[in-house]
C-alpha cells in the first residue's frame, strides 16, 4: 500500500511540475518517475488518429502503451482512444494468437484497475479475452501455437486477470529453459542444442537464449514456480560491459532500451537490486525532451529518437514489472520534443 500511495503522489507531482515548466518536460527529468512521465508525453504526441501507436505491431505497441499510461497516470482522451482502437481490432478479428491476445488482456486489465470501469476483459470488442487464452491450452501445458515468449506473456496476462495459471502451463515454461539459465524466443531447449539453445548444425536454428524472453519468463514464473537454473546469472553473463545495460542476445550485446528495460523489470519482479550502472545505462539513452534512443552508435552516442524504444523504456525507468500496478489517472502531459 505504501508503494502505491508513493507512486500516485509522484505521478501527480510530476504532472504538476510538467505543466508548470515552460517547455513541458524540463522540470520532469529529476528522477525516474519524471523520466517515465516525460517519455509518455513524447509517446502521447505520436499517437495516430485511429488511437494506435507506432511500432512493429500496431496492436502490440498500443497495448504496451496502455500499460505505460496506467503505470504513469497518463489519462485523458489518449487512453480512451487507445482502448477504442484495441477494441476495434479485437472486433474485426485482427487480434489472433495467445501472445497478442495476452497483450490486449493485460492492457484491458490495467485500464480496468486504473478506474476505467467501462472496460470488461470478458467482453472486449465482443470477445472474452481470458477464455481465449485458457481455451488454447494443450495437454502439455503449452498454449496452441505459442512461442516461449508467448507462453510467458499468456501466463502474465492470466495473473493480471486474477486467474491462476495451471501447473502444466508453468511447468512447460520452466522446462523450456536453456542450460545457461536463459530462455530462447521460439521453442524449448533440445538435446541437439548447445548451452545457449543454439544448434549450429541446423541452418534453420537462428535463435539462442535471449534477454527479452528470459525477462518475460522470470516475470511469468515469479511466485508460481522456481526455474531450474539461475536466470540472473544469465543476465550477468550476457550483460554489455561497455554501456552496462543489455542487448538482445549472444553476439548482439550492445545495450538497447527495450532489452535493458525488460531486464530491469525482471530484477524488480524478484525484488533484486540490478547491477551497478544498469539503470544509468537506460537513463543515458534518454533525450532531455523525454524521447529515448534505441541504442548507442559505434562512437557511444545515442541513436535517434525512437517511439518504440520510448514505449519500452517507461516501465524500466519505474522499475515496474509485469503485470503493472496502475496509479491514479491524470491528464496527459505536454511535450515539445523536436522530431528526428
What is the makeup of the main sheet? Answer: 2 strands, antiparallel
Helix content: 40-55%
Helix vs. strand class: mainly alpha
Order of helices and strands: HHHHHHHHEEHHHHH
Structure description:
The chain has 13 helices and two strands, in the order H-H-H-H-H-H-H-H-E-E-H-H-H-H-H. It is mainly alpha-helical and 340 residues long. The chain has one domain: Glycosyltransferase (Alpha/alpha barrel). A two-stranded antiparallel sheet has the order 1-2. Helix 3 runs antiparallel to helix 4. The N terminus is likely disordered.
Short description:
With 340 residues, the chain is mainly α. It has 13 helices and two strands, in the order ααααααααββααααα.
Main attributes of the structure:
disordered N terminus; globular; 340 residues; mainly alpha; 13 helices; Glycosyltransferase; 46% helix
What is this structure's SSE topology?
Elements: H1 2-20, H2 32-44, H3 58-72, H4 77-91, H5 98-113, H6 129-134, H7 148-160, H8 167-175, E1 183-184, E2 209-210, H9 211-221, H10 231-238, H11 257-269, H12 278-284, H13 307-318
Amino acid at each position: 500500500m505504501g508503494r502505491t500511495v508513493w507512486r500516485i503522489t509522484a505521478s501527480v507531482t510530476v504532472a504538476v511540475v510538467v505543466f508548470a515548466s515552460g517547455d513541458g518536460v524540463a522540470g520532469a527529468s529529476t528522477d525516474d518517475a519524471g523520466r517515465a512521465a516525460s517519455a509518455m508525453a513524447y509517446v502521447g504526441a505520436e499517437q495516430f488518429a485511429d488511437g494506435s501507436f507506432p511500432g512493429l505491431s500496431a496492436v502490440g505497441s498500443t497495448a504496451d502503451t496502455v500499460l505505460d499510461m496506467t503505470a504513469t497516470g497518463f489519462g485523458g482522451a489518449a487512453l480512451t482512444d487507445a482502448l477504442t482502437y484495441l477494441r476495434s481490432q479485437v472486433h474485426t478479428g485482427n487480434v489472433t494468437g495467445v501472445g497478442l491476445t495476452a497483450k490486449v488482456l493485460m492492457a484491458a486489465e490495467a485500464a480496468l484497475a486504473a478506474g476505467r470501469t467501462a472496460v470488461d476483459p470478458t467482453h472486449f470488442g465482443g470477445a472474452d479475452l481470458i477464455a481465449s487464452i485458457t481455451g488454447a491450452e494443450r495437454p502439455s501445458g503449452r498454449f496452441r501455437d505459442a512461442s516461449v515468449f508467448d507462453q510467458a506473456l499468456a501466463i502474465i496476462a492470466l495473473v493480471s486477470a486474477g486467474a491462476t495459471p495451471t501447473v502444466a502451463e508453468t511447468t512447460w515454461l520452466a522446462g523450456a529453459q536453456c542450460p545457461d539459465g536463459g530462455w530462447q524466443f521460439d521453442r524449448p531447449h533440445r538435446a541437439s542444442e548447445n548451452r545457449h539453445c543454439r544448434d549450429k548444425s541446423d541452418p534453420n536454428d537462428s535463435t539462442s537464449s535471449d534477454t527479452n524472453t528470459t525477462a518475460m519468463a522470470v516475470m511469468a514464473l515469479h511466485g508460481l514456480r522456481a526455474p531450474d537454473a539461475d536466470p540472473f546469472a544469465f543476465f550477468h553473463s550476457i550483460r554489455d560491459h561497455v554501456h552496462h545495460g543489455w542487448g538482445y542476445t549472444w553476439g548482439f550485446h550492445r545495450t538497447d532500451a527495450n532489452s535493458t528495460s525488460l531486464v530491469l523489470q525482471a530484477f524488480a519482479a524478484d525484488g533484486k537490486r540490478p547491477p551497478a550502472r544498469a539503470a544509468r545505462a537506460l537513463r543515458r539513452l534518454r533525450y532531455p525532451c523525454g524521447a529515448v534512443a534505441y541504442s548507442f552508435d559505434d562512437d557511444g552516442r545515442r541513436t535517434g529518437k525512437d517511439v518504440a524504444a520510448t514505449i519500452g523504456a517507461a516501465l524500466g525507468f519505474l522499475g515496474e514489472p509485469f503485470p503493472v500496478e496502475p496509479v491514479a489517472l491524470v491528464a496527459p502531459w505536454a511535450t515539445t520534443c523536436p522530431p528526428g
